[in-house]
Q: What sequence folds into this?
């Protein structure tokens, strides 16, 4: 048999899982398909995600609602995920594709780490996510857009960093805080008033939950804290020691405090 | 046209096997030991960056002896196989048995069809929730596969090393004792009693990685410092 030539070997060598799938199993990619003409029936949409920096790291929080037109498609959906040890991502938009893109992104980072024996840089991770969102552009034109928010700890610079994306895969580094999804304008208003530099972690978590509370107050597609079903937002913090999911117990207490203080204030907003 | 000499298939296979065995016999040894805390993997390897031991998936590790370029390409193929399988089915559907069988088929195909066989020997190990659920598979250059019990020793002095491990192995060993045993076993053909942690690369598959480290990925590479600390009993 013919031995592969050196250039062929070099061309085949990839540390990217997505590139490998593109070559070998393109049907497994979440995007990459041409849709026939026609209207897409209603499908679940993931809504509001907020992220903010605090002293020593960055955190991301998402509500638990997915909507399908005027119907609540899910009260339990989770929209913030750990991407790897030092980064998290949140998703807004078409839930079905967004969740698959998240899975692909998680495997992409782990795959690189296993093949190369080292972690991808934070900018490298942010760029890979941008490339995936750009690949989804044809689907976005059909109304199946996915907009992520990406946050991670830059182990070289020693700071938490935050990236937002547009539908074309454009990647923008954000400062202080950012939000995406249907309730993002309301969450952003709250964050502008509540956020300040060098917040302690506990307080930052409370501010994230409160901004989601404000988003849920004005946006029907964002779910507020649900004490009946014991559902609280999903919150991840990322700092030098890695990504950590904030326990339900803490979130229940924080949400309880917010509801209580607002009830005492007894005002319209 | 030049006439090719007739070579009997028996002779052809024997020549290939001898060739592969010679290549492997030149290499340094690797030991994989299943113990109470999980699975310990130790390879005699002075290079801190060219690894003989690698992570394949959540509970699965790879160890090899022989030619670096050959086993490295097999390791990468294994990572790709596992990641595709886990991505298209589910993470728990990736098993050492499936991976070992793919490796056996590739090694077998190369042994019979290619110009030269791979000069490698592989161990695929999977850590289970209990020690009875641990799997250790040993694969040789011709695609033979063996399901080993307790430990695997491969490489140049495999038989001597295996004897040394068998002498000290017990199911209830912890990581510290298993790693010490591996270091002693790897030193059998040398004039010293045991190897220093800097002369080897070591990794473990942690049986309780979820509760100990909050990670579903059981594989953990030990740096020389961590290794020395673990041996001294501090960690």
A:
């Amino acid at each position: 048999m013919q031995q592969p030539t050196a250039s062929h070997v070099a061309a085949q060598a990839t540390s990217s899982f997505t590139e490998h799938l593109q070559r070998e199993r393109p049907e497994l990619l979440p995007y990459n398909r041409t849709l026939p003409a026609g209207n897409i029936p209603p499908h679940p949409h993931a809504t509001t995600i907020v992220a903010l920096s605090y002293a020593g790291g960055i955190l991301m929080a998402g509500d638990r609602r997915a909507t399908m037109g005027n119907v609540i498609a899910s009260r339990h959906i989770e929209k913030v995920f750990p991407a790897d040890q030092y980064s998290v991502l949140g998703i807004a938009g078409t839930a079905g594709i967004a969740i698959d893109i998240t899975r692909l992104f998680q495997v992409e980072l782990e795959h690189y780490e296993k093949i190369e024996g080292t972690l991808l840089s934070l900018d490298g991770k942010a760029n890979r996510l941008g490339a995936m969102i750009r690949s989804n552009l044809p689907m976005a034109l059909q109304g199946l857009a996915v907009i992520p928010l990406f946050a991670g700890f830059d182990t070289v610079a020693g700071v938490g960093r935050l990236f937002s994306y547009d539908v074309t895969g454009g990647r923008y580094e954000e400062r202080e805080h950012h939000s995406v999804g249907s309730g993002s304008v309301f969450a952003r208003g709250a964050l502008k008033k509540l956020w300040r530099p060098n917040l302690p972690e506990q307080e930052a978590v409370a501010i994230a939950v409160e901004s989601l509370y404000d988003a849920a107050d004005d946006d029907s597609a964002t779910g507020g804290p649900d004490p009946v079903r014991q559902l609280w937002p999903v919150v991840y913090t990322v700092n030098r020691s890695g990504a950590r999911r904030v326990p339900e117990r803490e979130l229940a207490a924080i949400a309880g405090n917010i509801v209580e203080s607002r009830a005492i204030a007894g005002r319209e907003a | 046209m030049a006439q090719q000499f007739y070579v009997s298939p028996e002779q052809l296979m024997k020549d290939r096997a001898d060739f592969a065995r010679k290549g492997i016999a030149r290499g340094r040894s690797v030991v994989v030991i299943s113990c109470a805390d999980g699975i310990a993997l130790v390879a005699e390897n002075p290079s801190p960056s060219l690894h003989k031991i690698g992570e394949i998936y959540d509970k699965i590790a790879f160890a090899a002896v022989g030619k670096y370029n050959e086993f490295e390409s097999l390791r990468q193929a294994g990572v790709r196989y596992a990641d595709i399988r886990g991505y298209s089915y589910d993470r728990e559907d990736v098993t050492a048995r499936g991976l070992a069988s793919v490796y056996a088929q590739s090694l077998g195909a190369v042994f019979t069809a290619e110009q030269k066989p791979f000069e490698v020997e592989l161990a695929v190990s999977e850590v289970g929730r209990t020690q009875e659920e641990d799997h250790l598979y040993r694969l040789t250059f011709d695609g033979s596969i063996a399901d080993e019990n307790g430990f695997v020793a491969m490489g140049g002095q495999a038989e001597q090393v295996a004897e040394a491990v068998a002498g000290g192995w017990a199911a209830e060993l912890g990581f510290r004792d298993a790693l010490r045993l591996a270091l002693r076993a790897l030193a059998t053909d040398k004039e010293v009693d045991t190897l220093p942690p800097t002369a080897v690369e070591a990794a473990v598959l942690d049986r309780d990685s979820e509760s100990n480290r909050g990670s579903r990925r059981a594989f953990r590479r030990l740096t020389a410092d961590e290794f020395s600390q673990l041996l001294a009993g501090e960690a």
Observations:
- Chain A has one domain: 42-268.
- The longest strand of chain A covers residues 146-154.
- Helices of chain A lie at 6-12, 17-24, 95-116, 122-135, 137-141, 184-194, 201-218, 248-265.
- Chain A has eight helices and 13 strands.
